[in-house]
UniProtKB/TrEMBL annotation, chains A, B:
Pathway: Lipid metabolism; peroxisomal fatty acid beta-oxidation. FAD binds at T152, G191. Belongs to the acyl-CoA oxidase family. The keyword Flavoprotein applies. Residues 148-258 form the Acyl-CoA oxidase/dehydrogenase middle domain. The active site is at E457 (proton acceptor). Residues 386-398 have a biased composition (Basic and acidic residues). Its cofactor is FAD. It comes from Coniosporium apollinis (strain CBS 100218). This is Acyl-coenzyme A oxidase. It catalyses: a 2,3-saturated acyl-CoA + O2 = a (2E)-enoyl-CoA + H2O2.
Length: 699, 699
């Protein structure tokens, strides 16, 4: 391909340049970006990010230039090279867990060591006896063996109890036989397994004397430690290309009567006694499954930042992109309007900007609740906090109200937060118009990689059943007259108490009333669902849609509450100046009121609001808040502090050089431009075969 | 990679096999699939599809096995090879336009000849003088030159009037100079241009004597006809990887003072007189832009089928996939429940199934309206129906009410139909749980390729302004007392007439009332918007969100109306048996009532319904309809008649062999499994370098 000619290189975009426009945007607001960033993330986190970024940028393997162009095999090879380099850097620089996580966030793609680093290490550390920890976790921690966590099967994902892989105890030689009785028993979706891991923790149905004991964890070697070939009677490989997440080798795994020694069943909580050949039962059966609570809490914590990447890109781009003169423009206002000035764009982007902050504070609140729970559980006799995967939705819990509340909260918020982030990213991408469809926007690929979060760790629809079950249980308790013990029972009791008086929430005039209106709506829907289940005896399956709506309502209440409480906290009032704090309150109102008017019919039918209030929210309050927030939009996204290197986006560059960057990538970096085709129907495709071979050899 | 071992090959899925389950599904319904298909598409269309499919399947180049695996350069090469073969087959078999279109639908990917076949041929045929047609269209029609249509620029998409590329008339040597004055003038997104085309119709600002005359079409040779190298002073290439649509080479194009002869300005409707050097004005300036109406109408026509592919796949898969026992299951019902039996899945999929039929009938209605308009316009003196691209939203029309109604209708329906299809596809993908994320589901890649339809041919948000403008204009006319001349003015007049009496629509008891309720809501929102604009004098920009809601309401009314009228038509009652027709009426009610309860707050605030009616719709009517339609779901998607070859989906196979197919693709077809890595951090990535090279040489 011809290099970019000189006459092209001297061209610049027309009209006000992108960087001029962003400069003007930053000048018309006085939001103290650095202070706000420090408030959101702490100086320590920001400093760490900069330090780690410098190291990454100095290593060629992390260069992102070809990321969007490369095919799957190349992407995977590069990802593994990056994973190795990251490990080397971690050792060399003695990086902490936080440093390591900062690095992975900056690199912004899943890597083939991912499940080794998380689930394999965590499981071999936390579910092992001391002897097993020495045998399995220690070499894993030194990367002498590379592992993964093989639970999901072709035929079973959500219903963990239904797993088909078997682990049969052989009392004669004290071994287990791991076997895949059907095709659907094949492990599937197992991260780090497809090409990389040589070990796996395999969740398999324990069978002793023909009797099943449910899924338990077994360490199995999968591949030869030297040749990396699959061991005999094991069939393993990559499951193929996905909608995104293609830098990870998700794998399949089948066993044909593979024997493993007794020691390989991780036995901290349950075991087979080799002398008696009997199952040794754990104190709390739920601990065998562990909980997904920790994982769900981290999903909630991350959702705000995930969405904020898309909002940052779209906001900056829509401030640079100009199209059409204002219909009502006065004479002399000749230029085309910045797209971010259109209210139809603002109602999509600025409400999502508000959501990023809502999710951020909710994530912190969620993590606070989780850690409080951890402390309490550690204090409770003998029950070490369990932070492992594996729970199905049928998991039972201790009677602790705090734990039950945490569990339900994490389910509901995981569902709402990840849906909000995923769907919000697509709104951001679409708001960028035509150029949003190019991978150079950085939003599409990011969205594609994030999308499975709406399905894994509990499908977002399925999870709502657990929330509903908890709310129904709480409602029954309140109806019985039991004293409220947590926020959930408190809002239900309040609703009952006021049911003869009715509600009157000044949602447009008083922030606390806005929060209370969300609580009221949740309580109303809870008691409606309870009527359907307990009085009308409707089947569970017939109430699933009700449960989905109920869970969503409860979770939206929690987000609004968490956002409000974070702003009300004394620490917040101390750290932020009144103007910035006032702006955050506006974001809070925008999030809450926009959500309210989107869910208008439930707020109306629950009598939390009048039609008039809803109409005013929709047509007046929300529109006014958009207008007030608009001047600060660019500075607000700046406060999320994403380095350009992390975003890898032409549209979202800090300096606004959108068109120059798009053009550079297309004209200089694009491998497709290195081949010349023959366009005529009756000739072969390629004009010069050698070009293609030269390209292949570089790939 | 080790081939699939024998012990794996003999494995089958557990429990009731997929094909058994689908067989049972088909047995429990008596929907006459063949009859229904013939009713929907006509026997001629179905027969054509089978005939063309046979030809395609016999040609190796169309084999889809590697589609999901290949990287972008390979995908493009293969796509061009397929485009060439398709051209050869068209010539060899003397295929008609309909045969050709059937072939492209079966192949299911955009191809590098796409814009040559459509816009370049259409424009050179319809905007040429007879001499120009001979000079440009004839060799294009013979594929002696390959062209594209270069309108959109880096800096301008929606606002066509703002295009920056210039075409300056040189009165001395009777040429035009085509020039790109800024970087943002670069043509961008131009299909078939990136690597393939050697000509382009370039939309450029005509300048005569320093005076601008707006965008006009100019034929420009881009590449050498023999070497295919770009001509001097032209910089052209591919714009890079996109979220989808990567079998098309969308290109960029810059000019550095390139001269073209006078004859190259397509002059059927406007020209520069070479003797007088003056602009010769067309009778109707709008014809210079052409209209987008035809393109938008085809988008509406196709939307049902686009969505139906996802619904077919998800419905079949959710009938095969089983997970969890029913909580309320009686003793003896041991097996896990088909996912399609969960009401939370039904409310997502079966409502979309209803939408596919709604869109299908609306598309036909839309096309009928378009063709009626064509006839009328041909009859009108001298104005040949214009079916070309190029209009911006500022286009003006003749006074014809029919044309204005068609234009607004096409804008609103394009917006609603493509949004429904695109967002519906993602709902289908997500309803398939974990496996929906694999490309083997066939939904993700299809969605990715379809997604730009929500942005091009009029951004789906922007288009709603045109609908609103038309509705406001109609409302003003009705307020003045003018007699209604079309359906829009009729429903507005009706609303006015009844505004002192109020409405009473038996939406749950009478289908016609259900349609009327949608009309009422539209009229209410129209007069509300008119109040905001004409009485409160709100700025246009402040009303954009109102306009979006108004346009959506109007378009939803049109869909419901078209669906209903199609079912009421005598031809329908003649062709379909009462039971099948009854089922279609249920689908109509499901679509309309589900939409109603989703848009509950507007139906309530417009007083089209009571809260009670909405609650009953949501909790009773819709849930009951799901139950009644459920047994027929598989046969209903069968009636959309998608061959497995077209869908290319493991999850959506007619025979339900989901797991076998997924496994086969992963284990046998997957190139990533042909490389062996070294997993340890301090070693190079690849264990055997030659494997990678062997793989490359095959790619």
């Amino acid at each position: 391909m011809s290099p970019t000619p000189a006459w092209v290189k001297q061209l610049t975009p027309s009209g006000p340049q992108g960087h001029e426009l962003l400069k003007q945007e930053r000048e018309k607001s006085n939001v103290p970006v650095d202070k706000l960033s420090a408030f959101l993330f702490t100086k320590e986190v920001l400093e760490r990010k900069r330090r780690v970024l410098k190291v990454l940028q100095s290593e060629e393997v992390f260069d992102k230039s070809q990321n969007y162009f490369a095919g799957r095999v190349d992407r995977f090879e590069t990802a593994l090279a990056r994973a190795k380099k990251l490990r080397q850097l971690t050792v060399k620089h003695k990086w902490s867990q936080e440093d390591f996580r900062a690095a992975t966030e900056l690199i912004s793609e899943p890597g083939p060591y991912g499940l080794h680093e998380s689930m394999f290490l965590i499981t071999t550390r936390d579910q092992s006896t001391p002897e097993q920890r020495e045998r399995f976790w220690k070499p894993a921690d030194n990367y002498e063996i590379i592992g993964c966590y093989a639970q999901t099967e072709l035929g079973h994902g959500s219903n963990v109890r239904g797993l088909e892989t078997t682990a049969t105890w052989n009392s004669d030689d004290k071994t287990f036989t791991i076997h895949s009785p059907h095709l659907t028993a094949s492990k599937w979706w197992i991260g780090s397994l497809g090409r990389t891991a040589n070990h796996a923790v395999v969740m398999a149905q324990l069978i002793i004397d023909g009797k099943p004991y449910g899924p338990h964890p077994f360490v199995v070697q999968i591949r030869d430690l030297k040749t990396h070939e699959p061991l005999e009677n094991i069939h393993v490989g990559d499951i193929g290309p996905k909608f995104g997440y293609n830098t990870m080798d998700n794998g399949f795994l089948l066993f044909n009567q593979v024997k493993i020694p007794h020691i390989n069943m991780l036995a901290r909580f349950s075991a087979v006694d080799p002398k008696t050949n009997k199952y040794v039962r754990p104190a709390n059966p739920a601990l065998v499954y562990g909980t997904l609570t920790w994982v769900r809490s981290t999903i909630v914590l991350q959702a705000g930042g995930v969405l904020a990447r898309g909002v940052t890109i779209a906001t900056r781009y829509c401030a640079v992109r100009r199209q059409f003169q204002d219909r009502d423009a006065k004479e002399g206002e000749k230029g085309e309007t910045q797209v971010l000035n259109y209210t139809m764009v603002q109602i999509r982007l600025l409400t999502l900007l508000a959501a990023t902050f809502a999710l951020h504070f909710t994530g912190k609140g969620m993590m606070g609740l989780y850690e409080e729970n951890q402390k309490k559980m550690s204090a409770d006799a003998g029950q070490a906090a369990d932070t492992k995967r594996g729970a199905g939705p049928e998991e039972t819990h201790s009677g602790s109200d705090l734990l039950a509340d945490l569990h339900a909260t994490s389910c509901g918020l995981k569902s709402l937060a990840s849906t909000t982030a995923a769907e919000g990213l697509e709104v951001c991408r679409r708001a960028c118009g035509g150029h949003g469809y190019s991978n150079f926007s950085g939003i599409g690929p990011w969205y594609s990689d994030y999308l499975p979060t709406t399905t894994w760790e509990g499908d977002n629809y399925m999870l709502t059943q657990q929330v509903a079950r908890y709310l129904l249980k709480s409602a029954r308790s309140v109806l019985k007259g039991n004293k409220p013990t947590n926020d959930t029972t408190r809002i239900l009791a309040h609703f009952l108490r006021k049911s003869d008086i009715g509600a009157a929430f000044d949602v447009l005039g008083r922030d606390q009333d806005l929060v209370s209106a969300f609580a009221w709506r949740t309580a109303f829907l809870t008691f409606e669902a309870l009527k359907h289940r307990d009085e009308q005896k409707k089947a569970w399956n017939d109430l699933l849609v009700d449960f989905y709506r109920l869970s969503k309502a409860h979770s939206q209440y929690l987000v609004v509450k968490n956002f409000f409480e974070a702003l009300e906290a004394p620490a917040t009032h101390n750290e932020l100046d009144p103007e910035t704090l006032g702006l955050l309150y506006k974001l809070f109102r925008l999030y809450a009121l926009h959500t309210l008017e989107q869910e208008a019919s439930e707020f109306f039918s629950s009598s939390a609001c009048t039609v008039r209030q809803i109409t005013l929210a929709r047509n007046n309050a929300v529109m006014k808040l958009l207008e007030e927030i608009r001047p600060h939009a660019v500075r607000l996204v700046d406060s999320w502090d994403f380095p350009d290197w992390q975003l890898d986006s032409s549209l979202g560059r800090f300096d606004g050089k959108v068109y120059e960057d798009m053009f550079y990538r297309a004209s200089e970096l694009n491998p497709l431009n290195k081949i010349t085709v023959d366009p005529y129907p009756d000739s072969p495709v390629l004009f010069k075969r050698d070009e293609r071979e030269r390209l292949n050899s570089k790939l």
